[in-house]
Amino acid sequence: MSWWGGDSRHQATQEALKVCGDKHGHSISPEFTGWSGHFEKLTTQIAGRTEADIMQVNWPWLSIYSADGTGLADLKELSDKIDLSNWDEAQIEAGSMKGKLNGLPVSTTGRLFVFNETAWEKAGLDLPKTWDDLIAAGPVFAEKLGEDHYPFEAAGLDAALVVTLYGTQKTGKPLIDPDTNEIAWSMDELTEAITFYKSLVDNHVIPSWKAVAAAGNVPLHEKPEWSDGRIAGTYQWDSTYFKISDPLQDGQNLVYTDLLSQEGQKTPGIYRKASMVFSISANSEKKEAAAEILNCLLNEPEGVAALGSTRGVPASKTAREQLLEVNAIDAIQTEAQDRVINAKGPGIHPMMEFPDVRSAMQDNLELFAYGEIDAETAAEEMIYAINEALDDIKS
Amino acid sequence: MGGDSKYLGLWYVAPYGIGLILFTAFPFITSLYLSFTDYDLLSSPEWVGLKNYEKLFTRDRTFEKSLKVTLTYVFLTVPLKLTFALFIAVVLNYRLRGINLFRTAYYVPSILGGSIAIAVLWRYIFAEVGLVNMIITGLGGEPINWFGEPGNALFTITLLRCWQFGSAMVIFLAALQSVDRSLYEAAAIDGATPWRIFRHITLPLITPVIFFNLIMQTVQAFQEFNGPYIITQGGPLKSTYLLPLYIYDEAFKSFDMGYASAIAWVLFTIIMVLTLVAFWSSKKWVYYAGDKRN
């Protein structure tokens, strides 16, 4: 079995493989790495037919490895070994390609707003409920706490997803329509969403792209201004809670809120997806055995207990209930997960996570942020580049 | 050994030869073939003729930008690094107390320089609140946005490469030490100044080594990857997006192996042409002792 992750996940998964292997009489070789480079490694393995029997696969990769549903094993054919009743129809659909169940969702994740409550209290403000609240907080932070204090941050991918959220709320449509594989927004709608990014910078809500770049290629949670509360909010995957909360200095408290809203919005616009799926190789000679282990990891008490919440709140009903019963999931993880599950929003197209589509958005937003192009040109270039990327992917 | 000795040499070189064929020649030829295909790793390569090259030269603005950045980087880095390496080599060529310690110390960055850890360190040194800006503000200046300003970011990456001057320096030092002392003595007796001695005796005599270093450093600079990948990821505004980063992204993020191969072959051709130009020009400025053509 192959997977990516951090140390706690590596240890828990090895333990789970041991107990599941002992239970079902199989021996399983673990093959694990960090996140960085895992996509490249797995793709090279699949191309060379040397992939593991069981694989942890990022949800958007399904359409790369198995566009027609045959690139990975169809888990429905192994349903005598895997209890599929633990997933609802939408979750099964998310793991399916052309009607074939290529991956079982391990957990679900979504982008949520998370704020440093301590910093907001210091600024004498309640946590925001709307974009207007957030924008009004910018000048207050600057005045009360200092010019280097911001209520929020957004650059790179975070900025692209904030723009996506704002536009989705406004239009009620996802940027890329999952049904048609086409861009669903008009040029004007995209221009408005891009312009919104600038209003955040102009109102001292977020540091400018250039100011963020001054630190070099450093993630938010490694920045001192995050750990000491000078940046007091962000828009992140709920599954990254510990990553962003661990570096905070003592006394700083993080809380999740509902998605910020705007007047006249058509949807809250949650960006939700299966955070990862477990798949079985189409080339595996031991599919039945792999299915037994997969079921043990996701549904059986021994495997579930050993894995714990190292992959977030489990998507499998049985596993979730088991972990909740023994308080193995942190309360804030559960709260964040509930917000993700309960929020409404149009379906997210897997192509939104494709490198070429992401570059098309981020590169043009960066040009706009640096003042190299205006919002109309950025929208025009973005649509052109996304369409080109979509054409490449479709062909 | 007897009659076998004729083939013995072949046996000795066989491991290297097999390695060369398998791990250099085969990928080299394969990449040339792949550059004429559409290949995503997961399905078989599909022959597309010159389509990749046509896109590269007519429609790909990222390639155009990346090529300009790469050429700027190379033409900035190589002269700066060689000049600095030669300067330090000249200084270290003096017979001073503890000079061997300095020679070793100055070589250390070359051992460490290409590593990820040093790239990360560089990121912190030049960060907004890093060591360099602390010194600048301590001296009363304004902090500089090293990574956020496109013009500064490439220069910062260039400095990292220049800092790894040790290997070029050691080669220069060896060359300086091989210059016949009697020539210096004769020039000194004739009243030549140290600068004239350096300009008219030292420099001409070490031109073969300057030429060697020029070729090696140029080839290495065209292949730079770690520094910009770790420090800036090619940004901002692709101002540090060197061609090797673009090749990597196309090959391993977009999985367009055919296109990545085409970029790699264009890069190879540029390096080859510049090397040939350097070899051609060397006839006019490189002096080989004992070469009757000179």
TrEMBL record, chain A:
One Gene Ontology CC term in the entry: periplasmic space
InterPro entries linked to this entry: Bact_solute-bd_prot1 (IPR050490), SBP (IPR006059)
Subcellular location field: Periplasm
Pfam families in alphabetical order: SBP_bac_1 (PF01547)
Coiled coil: none
Similarity field: Belongs to the bacterial solute-binding protein 1 family.
Record's protein name: Carbohydrate ABC transporter substrate-binding protein, CUT1 family
Species of provenance: Poseidonocella pacifica
TrEMBL record, chain B:
A Gene Ontology BP annotation from the UniProt entry: transmembrane transport
Keywords in alphabetical order: Cell membrane, Membrane, Transmembrane, Transmembrane helix, Transport
Membrane-crossing segments per the record: 12-36, 71-92, 104-125, 153-176, 197-216, 259-280
Gene Ontology CC annotations of this record: plasma membrane
Coiled-coil regions, chain positions: none
A Pfam family the protein falls into: BPD_transp_1
Record-linked CDD domains: TM_PBP2
Membrane topology value: Multi-pass membrane protein
Subcellular location: Cell membrane
InterPro entries recorded: ABC_transporter_permease, MetI-like, MetI-like_sf
Family classification: Belongs to the binding-protein-dependent transport system permease family.
PANTHER family: ABC TRANSPORTER PERMEASE PROTEIN (PTHR30193), ABC TRANSPORTER PERMEASE PROTEIN YESP-RELATED (PTHR30193:SF1)
Name of the featured protein: Carbohydrate ABC transporter membrane protein 1, CUT1 family
Native organism: Poseidonocella pacifica
Record lineage: Bacteria, Pseudomonadati, Pseudomonadota, Alphaproteobacteria, Rhodobacterales
